[in-house]
Each structure stands twice: as C-alpha cells, then as structure tokens.
Write a structure and sequence with these properties.
The complex is a heterodimer.
Chain A lengths: L5 E11 L5 H10 L12 E10 L2 E10 L18 E7 L3 H5 L1 H11 L6 E7 L10 H10 L3 E4 L8 H14 L31 E2 L1
Chain B lengths: L1 H4 L13 H15 L6 E2 L12 E10 L2 E10 L6 E2 L11 H7 L11 H6 L3 E7 L9 H18 L5 E5 L6 E8 L2 E10 L9 H12 L4 H4 L3 E10 L39 E14 L19 E8 L6 H13 L5 H4 L13 H20 L5 H12 L9 H11 L18 H5 L3 H11 L9 H15 L2 H21 L18 H35 L9 H9 L2 H27 L11 H27 L1 H4 L1 H6 L12 H4 L15 E9 L6 E5 L9 H13 L4 H10 L1 H14 L5 H8 L4 E7 L5 E7 L1 H4 L4 H8 L14 H13 L3 H21 L7 H19 L5 H29 L8 H16 L3 E3 L6 H20 L22 E11 L7 E11 L2 E11 L4
Parallel strand pairs in B: 5-6
Antiparallel strand pairs in B: 1-4, 2-3, 3-5, 6-7, 7-8, 8-19, 9-10, 9-17, 10-11, 11-16, 12-13, 14-15, 17-18, 18-19
Helix pairs in contact in B: 2-5, 8-15, 8-31, 8-33, 10-11, 11-12, 11-16, 14-32, 15-16, 15-31, 16-17, 16-30, 17-19, 17-30, 19-20, 26-29, 31-32, 31-33, 32-33, 33-34
The chains are: A alpha/beta, B alpha+beta.
C-alpha cells in the first residue's frame, strides 16, 4: 500500500435516483458494511479506496451524489474530470429505471472526459419484489455502451466486482487516465482474461 | 592433415599489423556484423519499389586517425530473403547486376543518388565522418578502394561498397562489387560544363561504346536507352500571386486600415508553389530507334510516351496566420504589467486633456455626435466607454480613438447604432456560418473537445482582436490598452446593469476556457443583480402598500380564513407572536431598503426577535410530528368519524385523496401569510389539511467557475473519508437544503417535514395500501426509514429552518462579491497573462479558419489538422500546459496553413484553364490530379501530352515560353546550338540518359555482363555514372 506503487488516481462518480442505494453501494465497497439506516446524502459525499486490479494499484476517489431533483443543480459540477461513472437504479422500482435516460443525458452534458467509462448497476436484487428484469437492464446497457451488473449492497453480491470491473475498464482505455507526458506505465492488454475470480461471466462488457 | 600440421610451430603475429590492415579488418568486421556476407537472392525489382521504405544504419570506423562513416542503405523488402545453397551460386545472377539492368525504377521520384544513378537497392557508403574532411587525392581514394576490394573478397560480400571522394556536395562516389567470376566497378565523372561532344545522345553512346572498348558491341546487343527530359515552369502566365499582406499602415484618410476584426489573416505572402517540373520520359528505346545529335533530335516532349509532374514548393512561404500566432505567443512571454506599459494612462475623467486631444476630439466628433443622437438606452454603455476613451486620446494612447472605438463596438455590438450605415462591423451572414466545410465535418468532434469558447462569443472575438492588435496596431502597448479598456468596460457594465453582449447568461460552462467562464460568471452576477433590484423595487412598493393597510397580513385565500377560524387558542397566541414578528421584520426591511442603496444588505431576519417565536413554533411542529408519526399506524384510519366532524365541505368530493381521509386533529396552521409560492405541487395537499401544497420560489444555486469548484472540491476532499468528514461535508452543503426548507415553510404555513419530503424527495415518502376492516382500501404514507433516523441531517436542518421566503433569505450567491472577484481577477492580469488566457480561443479560431477552405481536404491536411486539433484539445484542457506546447500547435497550424495555401495556389493555376464545356468527369480527374500533386512527390500525367491535364500543362508552358520570347527576342537566335526543345517548351533544365547493354569484358571471350551508364546533363553540371562489369576469370 505504499504511495509510490499507486498507478493512478481515478475519479469515479455514483449517480442515480434518490434512494436507489448509491451510498449503500459505496459503503459496502469501501467499508464492507451495510447500514440499513443510511441517511440520505446531502449534496455530494466522498470516499477513497485503493484497489488493486491486475497487480496495478489504483487510488479511487469516489464521489457519491444526492439523487434528489433539487440537488441536481448542484451536483453536476462535480462530474468534472471523472473517468468512470456508476449509474445506479433500483430493480424493485420501475421508476428509478425509467429515469436513467435523464441521468445519462445529464452525464453527457456535464462530464468532461470524452470516453468516460459507464457502468450500470441494478441494485437491491435481494428484494423479493422485482420490477425491472435483468434483461431490461442488459438491453439498456447495450444500447448505451455500458458495463452492466446487478448487485445488492445488502447481501454484498456483485458490489466488489462492479467497482473492479469499472476500474479495469478505465485502465484499459488509453488516454483516459494517463497524465500527459508520462509514458511508460502501459498495461499489457489481457483481453478475454479480464474476468477473474467469482465474477466470471457475470459482468458483461456490452 | 590437420594432425600433421599441428606439429609445425606457426605463430601468427598481429602485433605489427599496419593501420591499413586494421582498417581492412574493421571493414570486414562491419560486413560480418551486418551479415552482408550472407548470400541471398531477392525478387527482381518491380515498378515503384524504390518509393518503398528505405532503411539506413551507420557505423564509424577509422583509418589511423581518419574517421569514416560506414552507412548501409537498403530497401526494406516485403518478402523474406532466401538463402541460396552454395552450389547454386554460380547460376544465379547477383542481385546487384539484376538491379543495374532493371528498367523498372529508372527515374525514381525520391531516392538516394546512388540508387538513382546505378539502380541499386542495397549498398554501403564510406564517407569521411567529419563534415569538412574529404578525400581529395586520387592515391588516397585508390587506397580505400583497394581496402574495400580486399575486404569484399575476404568476406565474400556481394553488396557494393562505395567511397565518397572530393567535397561532399559533389556527391562523387567510387565503388566496387565482387561476385564469383565477376567484378563491377562503379565509376563517376563530374564536370561543371557539358563538353559539346557529349551534349546529345549520340555523343554519349559513342563514349559508352569507347569505354567498353568493344568493337563487337553492335554485333552483340544494341544499347538500350532510357531518356528523361525535365522542363521547369517558373513564370506562371496570367497569374501573379494575389495575396498581399494586409495594409496596416493605418495612418491616413478615413480608412482605418482595419477591414475585418473578426478573422485572422490567412494565406501565404508569396506563392507557395514556385516551380512546376515536367518530366518527359522515353522509357527503354533501342539506340537505332532514336536520333539525337548536335543537329537534330527526335526527342520532342510532346511525343514522349510518359509524362510526370512534380511541384517545387517555396521553403517558407511566410504564411500570415502562422506569423500572427507566433507573434502572439511572443506576447505571452512578456512580463510587463499594465502600469509599466501605460504609465500615463489615466482612468479618471480628470480634466487633464491637452489641446492636441481636443483637436483629435474634433476629428472624431461628427461620428460620435451622430452615434449619440441615435443611440438606444442600452448603448449608453459604450457611449460611456467612448467618452472615456476620448480622454485617453492623448499622444501616448497606443490605440487611436477611432480604432479603439471600432474595436469596442465590435466587441460590444449592443451599443451599435441601429440604423447603422456607418462602416462598422459587418454582421456575418448566417447562412455562411451554418455551412460546414468538408474539413469541419471531419474534425468536428475534435473541435468539440477544445476547451475554448463559442465562436460568436465576446471571448472568442476578443482573442482574435488581441492577436490582430498585437501584430498590426501597436504591439504590446496596444494590447495593454485594449485589455485595460476591456476590463473597464466589464466594470462599467457590472455597475450599470448592462449585460455583456455576445455571451449567454447561463451558468459558467466548464467546457469553456476559464476566462470565458469568468465572463459568464460576471453576466450571471449582473443578471442576479438586475433581478434583485427589480425585486427590491417590487417589494418596496409592496411594503408601502402593506403598511398602508395593516390588515393585509391575513388577507389570504378564503380557505385560509376558514382554517384560522378552526385553529385553536394556543396556536392563535403563537400566531400573534409570529404576526408581530412579521411586522417587525417587514418594517426592518422597509427601513433597510430605504437606507441602503448599494444593496450590500440583504434582508436578514431579526435573529433575536424571531428566535423565540420560531423556536416555539418548531417545538410545536416537532410535537405534531411525533404525534403524527405515532398516529399514522393507529389513529389515521380509525378516524373516519372524526373526519366527518370536520367542517370542510370539499372533503367528500376529494375522498380519493388519501390525505383528506386524515382529519386535521391538530392542524398546525399558521396565520402567517404564505409567501414565495411558485406554483402548486401537483394536486398534493398539506398532510392532514385541505391546503394545497405549494412549491416555493427557491434560491438558485450559486454558479461556479471551475477554479471555484476546484477550491470547493478540495475543501470537501480535505475532510477525508471518515464518517465525521461525511457529516461535516453534509453540513457544509446543507445551506442549499436549508434555504429550500425555509422557502418551503414560508410558502406552506403549517407544513411538516413529511410535506417537504413529498415534494423534495418523493421516493422517501412511502405509501402503502391497507385494507380496512370494512373492506375499503386506504393508503397510508410515511417517511422512509432513512428519513426517520433520529438526528439525521434532514431532521436537523428542518428543525433549524425558519419560514422565510427565498427573497428574504441570506443570499446563497453573493453576486456583488463574486462580481468583484471576477473583476479583480481580470484587472490583475498582465497583458501577457490575458493573452495566455485567450490562447485557447485563438487556437480555435485559427483551426476554424483553416477549415474554411472549400475544397475537399487532402489526407495530409486532414492529418495535420487532426493532430493540431487533438493537441490543442489536450493542452487547453490541461491547466498546466506550457507555452511551448502551444508553440507546437502553432507549428502544426502554420504547416496546415501552408498546405492550404499550396492547394489554393495550384488549383488557381490549373483552374483558370477550366472551361465550362468540360464534363464533370474530367473535372473530377483534374481534382484528383491536383490532390495527388499536393500529396505525392511526383505524379504521372495520364495520357501524357494528349491527356486533359497534359493539355493544360502544355498550354502553360507555351504561354510562358511565348511571354519570355516576347521579352528577349535578341536572345532567341542564340538558342540554335542549344539542345532540342519542343517549340512550346523551353530548353530542358535537365536531361538524363541511361544507357544499358550487355557485352563480354574485358576480352571478347569473357563472359558477357551487364553494363550501364547514367548521364545527367544539367545547365552547369555534367555527370556520368557508370557501372562496368568485367569477367575476372577469363580476362
């Protein structure tokens, strides 16, 4: 965990309707805990975690945003410079899914990086009452060139994998994270073998 | 054998090896190192192979203290070279000899001179390493050649080795190549003048035959000849380079010398295409087929079967835009501050004018007077600016008043006279703007990534203006002056509520450059200020009205009155307190509004007086809340009878609305006059009441420029990722939430957090259907779990929120402060700093200007433009970009400009010949031809003299020739002795003959081997390069 081993610092953004579990996903990822009493985020929040992908350490600065309509006048300014974005919906709420288009268009407007890597996460798959099928999620992700995964912050399912996959994709996207003028640290492309551990076949690069 | 010999003591002694031996050893070493001793065969050369990739590698070897560069040049071959088995070697013709007789690459468009003269694809050259060293003596040259011969023989290397002799510029090489049984000598003659005897083909053939010393030559095989004549066209008829540098000598007359403030000058100052070279080629004809002697020549270029053309380009055609940009970059390096540059520049209108100024005033007066008379109210902004500038029209003002006025009117066109027939800024035709040229579509997506400013924006225009002003209207001082004026104008506009024109009023767009964001910010501030002042005026009049009729406080809707009647006593007392509080607030506001004209003060609640009452109010509300919450499960549904007790007549009709089912057991109704309502929130009602829920007027969030945002984000990140940090962050950002809650409370007297959540975060309001015992279904709503967490931030903020409408709240966005910050930022910039900030826009403008060429761009232009744009996009996004990287972009841009200028020039030359009768097909091939002229070193003319392009070229030459003949008639007769030329063509500037044959050498019984002589006849140069092969076995 030495600082000099960190390959790069990546800015990742979590957006989506209010109450879909953005903060819970983040908390699960950073602290591996789940708080059913997670307070609603005000404005933006921020967490840091170092993640190792294929032997490359990346420091993640993850910005968690409030989903409320009114905060949307405030939060997009933090989209600036993000290399990756996690777009979250709640599989037990159709409405949170139908709003995704609006979120995407907002992202188009405010994100400054041209090739920002987008990941769609369908959260709360632990719930019995499902309103959005996995297929619908997949279709949406395919249409918008996103990574897709279903997850549950409560049961831990898919959370770690979602972040890892996103980071890996960012690192594999040239020009997205390298700082200008610094060459050399190029990663060997490991096409096809990127799926590791328990998430083989789970995440799909659409 | 070996055993026997081992008995003999033989010591090989290298200790006394001479320098010469070491030199040979070193050559051999290099040959081994490069594996040149390996024999391989290659495919015969194909046409155009020489334009493939050439590779060279160099070693340094020494002869005593004399250093040689040994360089191998070879053509990268596509196929794998095949090793030949030893026994086959005698049967195959060595690659070198194949190459020497190959006719496929006779006149390569671009090749090393050795391969041009000898047709070789692989060779090694030894040349003195030091620039000023040369092998001048023949003996030394022979010594090196001998060394080469020994080394080649020792190693069995077939690749020819050359040594360069005499001065380097003479390109004089001697070489040698050895194969089993054969040797080729490469020899060369280089003279300054053409010996008359060899000034034609027949003389050269005679010499060739004499050299080969072979009487039986004609009997064996005739000499094959390839001929190329090159004609140079220097004077383009009917065409002179029209681009003149813009005349900036802005001294006299009414013409200010400024034609266009909007566009960067563009184009080359001199013709970027200086010459057209036409090569007429006769490939491979037999010596008997052609007559070319001192008296007569068959070689008429019009009859030549192959034509090709190449362009000679001007090295540095002095392109205007590149020049302007480089000049601007120099500006960016200046260190002077405004004060240093404009020491006598007085900003105040103090009466310090000199008589001279008044005289100048008089000059400009008529125009000014006219303008002033017809100016609209908004145009006073600039009229003010012009009055200011009039005072500055002293001798030392770097930009003269009239010009400055013009620039200012260009940047701030809202001050322009409406019935303008004055020669001011010509608005750009809109159709033209929308028309995308071909290149634009190509690199459009890249241009989007540029972090600059919209093309029509004031920022963009300012950047272009600055560049023009710096280059042509007074340099650094003028830039300082203009920048000063600009900053003053910005302040003037802020102080007098005039929007900055040509700039949207939206929040700062972070996709734009920082300076553009700053200006947008200023516009935002102006907008807020205007709104605020309008509101103030409104409120002022409203308060006057209110104080006239004191009862107006409760003149709400009739429904409100009903509720006031039903409200209980305790609340009424409470309300009284609120009422008085309200009044004190309002009077405070009133006095405040009257006293303060600078608007620094905003309506603040009187903290002390309101605190107690709101506190009681809050405690009440939280009471209600707890009651409500406890009752949600038990009371609500069981109170149908209680509902019937209520006096509300609409109740039954609205029974579909779940909230109406719930009786107002303790309606927290406040008699405060609802304030700051925007509109009704759907058909929602305040819980437990029949009052519609209103969305309040809220404060707009504070716009931020990227530097502000960065600071803000840094503060937020510094709090760390602990839970305390999170809490603090939430607290820091809750001002907006608080403001919204306060507005909401003001708009919806008697509301609860639940009401607020239903508007603000609907997904935190959970409604569940519940079936009653009597079978009816009612819907019960409650706050989500996370909103119910004790002491969560939402509850805390709600508790601290006072019912204050947005317009009386403390401003979230202090426009005055922010505007001052922007103005200070601008004023603190040195001219060079301002220039640096404007660079992105300038790069953008330059690239756009490049795209404005109508023609389909050539691939290399697209490539260079793409590179320039990509680089520009990257450096404009990186705030730490150095000027050096901008210089690189400017270099790219200059190069692209040259490309465009070349294209325009060559098109112009060919297009004038276009007649309307030509079919579009011909025109497309012509366009293709022109494009390849720009892209390739040499372009074949299809159909030679008879093709459509050939006809144009012929005509161009004929006209040029006619023109020159008209000029010097006297010289014409002296052309008699000159080599032949087609009537319409000038004397060829260069003639090349390649003579080839195969004869047995040195003796008639030797093995026949290929011989080649390449002759170059130029005006002041005569060169023979021969490759003569001889049999080393049968001599």
């Amino acid at each position: 965990m030495e600082e000099n081993q960190v390959l790069t610092t990546l800015k990742i953004l979590i957006i989506g309707e209010s109450g879909v579990g953005k903060s819970s996903l983040l908390l699960r990822f950073t602290d591996d805990t789940f708080d059913p009493e997670q307070a609603a985020t005000i404005g933006v929040d921020f967490k840091v975690k170092t993640l190792s992908v294929d032997g490359n350490k990346a420091k993640l600065a993850i910005w968690d945003t409030a989903g409320q309509e009114r905060f949307r006048t405030l939060t997009p300014s933090y989209y600036r410079g993000a290399q990756g974005v996690i777009l979250v919906y709640d599989v037990s709420s159709k409405q949170s899914f139908t709003k995704l288009d609006a979120w995407l268009s907002e992202l188009e407007t405010f994100a400054t990086k041209h090739e920002i890597v987008k990941m769609l996460v369908g959260n709360k798959i632990d719930k019995d009452k499902r309103e959005v099928s996995r297929d619908e999620g997949l279709k949406f992700a395919r249409k918008h060139h996103m990574l897709f995964i279903e997850a549950s912050a409560k049961t831990k399912e898919g959370v770690q994998c979602a972040f890892e996959e996103l980071v890996e994709k960012i690192i594999q996207t040239p020009g997205l994270w390298e700082t200008d003028g610094r060459e050399g640290v190029r990663l060997g492309t490991n096409d096809g073998q990127s799926q590791q551990g328990g998430c083989a076949g789970y995440c799909s690069v659409v | 054998m070996a055993e026997e010999e081992s008995d003999v003591f033989e010591i090989t002694d290298f200790t006394t090896a001479s320098e010469w031996e070491r030199f040979i050893a070193r050559i051999e070493e290099v040959i081994h190192e490069w594996r040149l001793n390996k024999q391989y065969t290659s495919q015969p050369l194909k046409r155009g192979d020489f334009s493939g990739t050439w590779i060279d590698k160099t070693e340094i070897i020494t002869f005593a203290d004399f250093k040689f560069n040994v360089t191998r040049h070879y053509l990268k071959s596509q196929e794998q070279e095949v090793d030949i088995p030893e026994d086959d070697q005698n049967e195959t013709v060595p690659t070198v000899l194949q190459d020497v007789v190959s006719m496929e690459n006779d006149f390569p468009s671009r090749a090393h001179c050795i391969s041009r003269w000898y047709g070789l694809r692989d060779f090694v050259i030894m040349s003195p390493a030091a620039q000023n060293e040369a092998i001048m003596a023949e003996s030394r040259s022979n010594l090196v050649l001998s060394s080469i011969a020994i080394a080649l023989n020792n190693t069995g290397c077939h690749i020819p080795l050359f040594v360069q002799v005499h001065e380097k510029w003479r390109r004089l090489y001697f070489g040698l190549s050895e194969y089993p049984g054969l040797r080729t000598n490469f020899e060369m003659v280089h003279l300054k003048h053409i010996p008359p005897a060899y000034n034609h083909l027949s003389g050269l053939i005679d010499m060739f035959k004499a050299k080969l010393n072979c009487s039986s030559l004609s009997a064996s095989s005739p000499v094959q000849v390839s001929i190329r004549f090159t004609f140079v066209l220097q004077d383009w008829p009917h065409y002179s380079w029209t681009q003149v540098p813009p005349d900036f000598d802005a001294g006299s007359g009414t013409n200010v010398g400024m034609t266009d403030l909007e566009t960067l000058p563009f184009g080359a100052c001199q013709d970027p295409v200086s010459e057209l070279h036409l090569a007429a080629t006769w490939p491979s004809i037999s010596e008997e087929m052609v007559v070319d002697n001192a008296n007569y020549s068959d070689l008429d270029p019009l009859q030549a079967p192959v034509w090709s053309v190449r362009l000679k380009l001007t090295d540095d055609p002095q392109c205007l835009m590149g020049e302007y940009l480089r000049d601007f970059l120099r500006l960016c390096r200046r260190k002077e501050s405004l004060d240093q540059l404009l020491p006598n520049f007085s900003l105040d209108d103090s009466e310090t004018e000199l008589p001279a100024t008044q005289a100048l005033d008089k000059l400009t007066k008529p125009a000014m007077g006219y303008k002033l008379s017809s100016m609209t109210s908004i145009s006073n902004a600039v009229s003010k600016a012009s009055t200011r500038l009039k005072h500055q029209t002293t001798e030392e003002a770097p930009i003269r008043g009239e010009l400055l006025n013009k620039i200012l009117l260009f940047l701030f066109p809202d001050a322009q006279v409406e019935t303008a027939d004055l020669p001011l800024v010509v608005p750009v035709a809109e159709g033209e703007e929308n028309k995308n040229t071909a290149i634009e579509t190509e690199i459009k997506h890249l241009l989007h990534q540029l972090k600059s400013a919209p093309v029509e924006s004031v920022t963009h225009k300012l950047a272009v203006c600055m560049c023009l002003v710096h280059h042509s209207y007074g340099g650094l001082k003028a830039v300082a002056h203009l920048w000063q004026e600009f900053v003053l104008e910005m302040r003037y506009r802020w102080e007098n509520n005039y929007y900055i024109p040509l700039l949207d009023k939206s929040i700062p767009n972070m996709g734009c450059s920082l300076i553009h964001q700053k200006l947008q910010m200023l516009n935002c501030c102006i907008e807020r200020k205007v709104k605020r002042e309008a509101k103030l005026a409104e409120v002022n009049s409203g308060i006057l009205h209110a104080s006239a009729s004191t009862s107006s406080i409760n003149t709400g809707k009739p429904g409100d009155m009903d509720y006031i009647e039903t409200s209980n006593v305790t609340e009424e007392t409470n309300n009284v307190a609120m009422e008085t509080d309200n009044i004190t607030m309002e009077t405070a506001v009133q006095s405040d509004a009257e006293s303060s004209t600078d608007d620094e003060e905003f309506f603040e609640c009187n903290e002390n007086s309101s605190e107690t009452s709101t506190k009681s109010n809050q405690s009440k509300q939280s009471d209600f809340k707890t009651i409500n919450e406890s009752s949600t499960s038990q009371n609500k549904n069981s109170d149908s009878d209680a509902a019937s007790e209520s006096d509300i007549p609409e109740k039954i009709s609205e029974s579909s609305n779940p909230s109406s089912q719930i009786p107002p057991t303790k309606t927290p109704i406040s008699p405060i006059k609802p304030d700051g309502r925007l509109r009704q929130c759907g058909d929602l009602l305040i819980l437990d009441t029949e009052i519609p829920l209103y969305i309040p007027v809220t404060q707009e969030p504070a716009p931020m420029t990227e530097d502000m945002l960065e600071q803000h984000a840094e503060v937020l990140t510094k709090l760390g990722s602990t839970s305390e940090g999170s809490h603090l962050r939430a607290k820091m950002q809750s001002t907006c939430l608080l403001s919204d809650m306060e507005s909401f409370k003001a708009a919806n007297p008697g509301c609860t957090l639940k009401d607020f959540v239903r508007w603000y975060s609907p997904r935190d309001w959970i409604e569940e259907k519940e079936t009653q015992t009597d079978g009816s279904i009612i819907i019960i709503g409650q706050l989500s779990a996370r909103m119910q967490i004790a002491n969560n931030m939402w509850l805390e903020v709600w508790a601290s929120a006072k019912p204050i409408p947005a317009h009386r709240q403390k401003r979230l966005f202090d426009d005055t402060k922010e505007a001052e910050k922007v103005l200070h930022f601008l004023a603190a910039l040195k001219p060079a700093d301002a220039a640096i900030h404007l660079l992105p826009m300038l790069m953008h403008a330059a690239i756009l200007r490049l795209c404005k060429t109508d023609e389909i761009p050539t691939p290399s232009l697209v490539k260079i433009l793409t590179q320039a744009t990509t680089k520009a996009a990257r450096i404009t996004r990186d705030s730490s970009s150095s000027l050096r990287s901008y210089e690189e972009v400017v270099q790219h841009i200059s190069l692209a400009e040259t490309f465009v200028a070349r294209g325009e020039s060559i098109r112009c030359k060919f297009k004038q010949e276009v007649t309307s009768s030509e079919s579009s097909e011909i025109q497309t091939t012509r366009e293709k031809f022109i494009r390849s002229l720009l892209e390739l070193p040499e372009v074949p003319v299809i159909g030679a003299a008879r093709g459509p392009e050939g006809k144009i070229i012929h005509k161009l030459f004929a006209e040029a020739e006619k023109a020159s003949n008209d000029l010097d008639v006297d010289v014409a007769p002296s052309l008699e002795n000159q080599p032949p030329s087609g009537g319409d063509f000038p004397k060829p500037a260069g003639r090349e003959y390649i003579l080839r044959t195969e004869v047995p050498r040195p003796a008639p019984y030797s093995k026949p081997s290929p011989q080649r002589l390449h002759c170059t006849l130029l005006n002041n140069e005569f060169r023979l390069a021969g490759a003569f092969t001889e049999d080393t076995t049968f001599q």
